[in-house]
Write a structure and sequence with these properties.
The complex is a heterodimer of chains A (about 280) and B (about 300). Chain A is mostly helical and about 280 residues long. Chain A is built from 15 helices and no strands. Chain A has 2 domains: about 10-55, no CATH class; about 70-225 and about 250-275, MetI-like (MetI-like fold), CATH 1.10.3720.10. Chain A has helices spanning about 1-5, 15-35, 40-45, 60-65, 70-100, 105-115, 120-135, 140-145, 150-165, 165-175, 180-190, 195-210, 210-215, 225-235, 240-275. Chain A is globular and about 75 Å long. Chain B starts with a helix and ends with a helix. Chain B has about 300 residues and is mostly helical. Chain B folds into 2 domains: about 1-40; about 70-305, Orthogonal Bundle (MetI-like fold), CATH 1.10.3720.10. The chains are: A mainly alpha (about 280), B mainly alpha (about 300). Chain B: This is Sugar ABC transporter permease. Chain B: Keywords: Cell membrane, Membrane, Transmembrane, Transmembrane helix, Transport. Chain B: It is found in: Cell membrane. Chain B: Belongs to the binding-protein-dependent transport system permease family.
Chain lengths: ~280, ~300
Amino acid sequence: MAIRKNIRRSRWYLYIPLLIGLALTVLPFVWMVSGAFKPQREILSGEFTLLPENGTLRNFADLFTRVDFSSYFVNSVVVAVAVVLGNLLFCSMLGYALSKIEFPGRRALFAVVMTMLMVPTVVTFIPLFVLVTRMGLANTFGALILPFLAAPLGVFIMRQFIGDIPDSLIEAARLDGAGEFRIFFTVVIPLSGPALATLAILQFLSSWNEFLWPLVAAQTEDMYTLPVGIALISAGANTVNYGLLLAGATVIVLPILVLFLFLQRFFIQGISTTGLK
Amino acid sequence: MNPTANAPAHRRRRPAWRRRRALAGWLLALPFTALFAAFMVGPLTASLALSFSDATSRDLRTPFAVGFVGLSNFADLFSDEKFLRAIGNTVYFAGVGVPLTVAVAMLIALALNNGVNRFRALFRVGFYTPVVTSIVAIAVVWKYILEPDGLLNQGLAGLGVTGPDWLHDTSFAMPSLILMAMWRNMGTLMIVFLAGLQGLPAEVYEAARMDGAGPFQRFRSLTLPLMRPTILLGCVLISVYYFQFFEEAFVMTGGGPLDSTLSITYFTYNQFGYGNYGYASAASYILAVAIAIVTLVQFRVLRAKD
């Protein structure tokens, strides 16, 4: 380890391209926040000013008066929270069953779930739309939430993690006469904190950013989620009101960025343990 | 005879707890499996069935009364100029975007792994940031940046270059989307590659250095072959994703100008909007099969050189 450290001495010349790259990477976010506080006149002026000359909260106020932004926000939060909670429960239940309990068909079940890992939404959304319409769920929270409650990725993560819990712990609980559900709630769940955190973050992110399905499933403005609302404002208008859009984008992106900065360990762990977005 | 005389009683007891445990296993699996069957496996199968039918939005009330049309949807698709255009655009987006994203992510990962000790965590977080953001939200921001008098063209003007109207020019719209996708996704691959690079054996590099191998030689004959599985994983992840591109075009170009950014997913979405459910399903299945084939081919090509 000491040798390795010696070999990897700092190379200052690498910092210059990396710093330029980093600045370019972060610039769109800076420009987004800066634009969100600029009055329309300044946005259209075509001048490069990083800080607004006459900073205004008008764009944020417009989000609530000119469009139904509070609905979009509440809908996005409700859907994301429901999707996270559902997946935490259902994926860990199945993960436990698959990794620690012998039951007929478990290998086949796992194989089928994993095959669906890479199936894109675009292949399922049309029958899904027919299904929720037939169930009378069109344009409801049920339509927005139900299709995302069973995420194959979550099963993969939970099965992997629960599989590493020593069998002896579970066997001991069984010998004490505990049933499988009791073991699941009193032994498995308390030991699965890190995996549950990773899963919660991954599911929250993908729900918060999901677009194609809510675009199809939400038909009236009061059921739009944030990305649907913003996208339709952007696509629908003849003259683009960038102040409003940038304020909206800021409200969508900023909470996630803050969350990311505080919980980056879990975010990045999610990527490197599963290798999936 | 004695040992077997005991067996029946023994055997009767074992299945009892075994059966109870298997039942518990199935009960634990049930909620996920039911939702999964209803909202994923079911629709995936139904979508295949729809692609052989003439279903339209008018059949919503009576989904079983649609007509079977065999392969005619597929035949029509391959003579539909718009669809062929969408295939071309999707291949363009992935064909340029995937290698570009992989290369940039690899450069960043190499730089961070070879001689950037201070602030490495800061760089890692910084380059990763775009990955966590909503594509729709950042597409709005990029649209603003790419306006004719937007940030990018002002920067170019500072260098004495007159930038084009990026999103309204048939030859610049797609490169603009690719650039944004690279920006959004390079962080994922950077993390995957960094993890791979950190697992490489230091002794081998030390030996190569002793033998006088320069940095480029070490990269070509050590890093690249050793990293092949990691690069493969990166390529598969990112191409599955790039083949489905939609949101970027929906917000920034609306598929235009003149269909130059219309992707297969966008085409499917539009056909769904027109009510052509059978036709749209067939298009989406072609995309799914294409993704599966590309994944397999990548495994083949990158494995073959071992």
